[in-house]
UniProtKB/TrEMBL annotation:
Annotated protein name in UniProt: DNA-binding transcriptional regulator, MocR family, contains an aminotransferase domain
Keyword hit for DNA-binding: yes
Cofactor: pyridoxal 5'-phosphate
Family: In the C-terminal section; belongs to the class-I pyridoxal-phosphate-dependent aminotransferase family.
CDD domains for this protein: AAT_like, WHTH_GntR
SUPFAM superfamilies assigned to the protein according to its UniProt record, in alphabetical order: PLP-dependent transferases (SSF53383), Winged helix' DNA-binding domain (SSF46785)
Assembly description: Homodimer.
The organism's place on the tree of life at top rank: Bacteria
Keywords associated with the record: Aminotransferase, DNA-binding, Pyridoxal phosphate, Transcription, Transcription regulation, Transferase
Pfam family, one: GntR
GO molecular function: DNA binding; DNA-binding transcription factor activity; pyridoxal phosphate binding; transaminase activity
Record-annotated HTH gntR-type domain positions: 12-80
Organism field: Aneurinibacillus migulanus (Bacillus migulanus)
């Protein structure tokens, strides 16, 4: 079979591209276990690269246990090189395997549900919605007889445009807003229009797990940017922008998932300047903006953007009605056109009924009243979780909003075992490794305090603590 890899010859990581390419063919079973790989000379000739480059790639494959060497017969595929979690970290390979790690955890039923960053349905305005459903059918009797426009219902986009102006001093026309089926779809559409295999994408470390899966599926080369309680190290951001020339930086700067950290105002302004300077689009995902406890967070980065280097995703799923799947993407015109094409290819528009129901709730005074009560309820639940955890030596920074605690456990606790045993005991949580683009944060976990009720928070956290104690002590015996 002829090799079809086109390599980027300017890259000083040429051998890494060849490594990825070979691994990809092994993954796709084109080369099976114990098969002999092409000789270094043959591959170098076919790919028009130096033999030493191929040698370096083979050495790395050997070092990582993907191939082995047989005396006088060259390199062979190692039988253990079957598809595994680890392989998904390689850009070219990852685009062949579609996974959503977080949703795999969410599908496990649990009484003590700490893995879902969703709000307890009992805290949502369910009753009002049944009223609005009736109202929407009265007002628009043919609402189910037609599609929405691809961009989304105009009335809703106008309402959002007024809302952004009033709340964030943001001047956005209805044409600059796209309604998507949740923020997750927005991230997916953006990745499809902007990211090609091996394009560099900056992601916070840690970050929203599904975003890692989406960009990885697109074949992106992911470069992590650490997030701290005080924001980013802007020198790191600048040096990554300068060095890697990324297509975009996906960020969740307000009550970030999973950490709860918020990037301060001064950094927001500077980030927009850096984005302009290095022509790196900032994709600002802001689903927790209204989920603050005491004080409103700083304005979105999008407000400081004058040149079109920020795209803004605002989901309303979390605190209004997750089942409606409504989010808005704000973007300046050239990118909006591509987004509309992607949206039309994806689903031809978010269901009109959902948009109209949402519109009527969103435009009513009830939304703000609901939010005020919700903030208090979330604050109380966070307090309960923290109170239960206070007996441990686990470490976390208490967030000022959002839905999660990001917690460092002692390294003596074996994480995989803790997850398995917790699920057996009906307690679920997100292992930090899923939120880490480098798949390293092994002793961190994300616990959501927003879904379980107060009693479940008390009981479930106690169960988790007891389990971790028994595992830690059995490990050290
Ligand atoms: C940072 C972030 N972005 C996007 C989403 C997905 O939001 P939606 O339900 O609107 O698709 C989530 C959900 O947890 C999230 O935490």
């Amino acid at each position: 079979m002829k090799n079809t890899l086109s390599v980027d010859r300017q890259s000083n990581q040429l051998y890494k591209q060849i490594y990825d390419y070979i691994l990809n063919r092994i993954e796709r079973s084109e080369w099976k276990e114990h098969d002999k790989l092409p000789s270094i000379r043959t591959l170098a000739q076919e790919m028009n690269v130096h033999r030493l480059t191929v040698f370096k790639a083979y050495q790395l494959l050997k070092q990582n246990g993907k191939v082995y060497v047989k005396d006088k017969s060259g390199y062979h595929v190692h039988p253990d090189s079957c598809v595994s979690f680890e392989h998904l970290d390689y850009p070219i390979v990852s685009s062949y395997f579609l996974r959503n790690h977080l949703s795999e955890i969410h599908q496990v039923p649990a009484t003590y549900q700490f893995s879902q960053a969703l709000i307890d349905p009992n805290l949502l305005p369910n009753l009002y919605f049944s009223e609005y459903v009736k109202k929407v059918f009265d007002l628009y009797p043919k609402v189910l007889g037609t599609y929405s426009t691809v961009q989304g219902d105009e009335e809703l986009r106008e309402a959002l445009s007024c809302y952004f102006l009033k709340r964030h001093q943001l001047h956005l026309s209805a044409d600059e807003i796209l309604i998507t089926s949740g923020a997750q779809q927005a991230i997916d559409l953006i990745s499809r229009i902007l990211v090609k295999p091996n394009d560099t994408v900056l992601l916070e470390r840690p970050t929203y797990s599904a975003a890692i899966d989406i960009f990885r599926q697109q074949g992106a080369h992911i470069v992590p940017i650490d997030i701290y309680p005080g924001g980013y190290d802007l020198e790191q951001v600048e040096s990554c922008m300068r060095q890697y020339k990324p297509r975009l930086f996906y960020l969740n700067p307000t009550f970030q998932n999973p950490t709860g950290y918020t990037v301060p105002l001064e950094q927001r302004k500077r980030l927009v300047e850096l984005a302009e300077q290095y022509r790196c689009l900032l994709v600002e995902d802001d689903p927790f903006h209204d989920a603050y406890f005491d004080r409103e967070p700083p304005l979105p980065l999008f407000t400081y953007d004058t040149e079109g280097w920020v795209m803004y995703i605002r989901s309303f799923s979390k605190y209004v009605a997750p089942g409606l799947r409504i989010a808005a993407v704000a973007s300046r015109p050239p990118l909006m056109r591509s987004l509309l094409t992607a949206k039309s290819l994806s689903d031809n528009g978010t269901p009109l009924l959902n948009q109209k129901i949402f519109l009527h709730y969103f435009s009513s005074a009830r939304l703000q009243q609901h939010l005020e009560k919700l903030r208090i309820a979330l604050h109380i639940r966070k307090g309960i979780m923290e109170e239960e955890l206070a007996v441990t030596d686990w470490k976390w920074i208490s967030p000022k909003g959002g839905l999660n605690l990001w917690i460092k456990l002692p390294e003596t606790i074996p994480m995989e075992e803790l997850l398995i045993k917790s699920i057996e005991q009906s307690v679920s949580f997100v292992p930090g490794i899923l939120c880490d683009p480098l798949r390293e944060s092994a002793s961190w976990i994300r616990l959501s305090y927003s879904y379980a009720n107060e009693q479940q928070l008390h009981d479930g956290v106690q169960r988790l603590i007891n389990l971790s104690r028994s595992l830690a002590s059995s490990e050290s015996k």
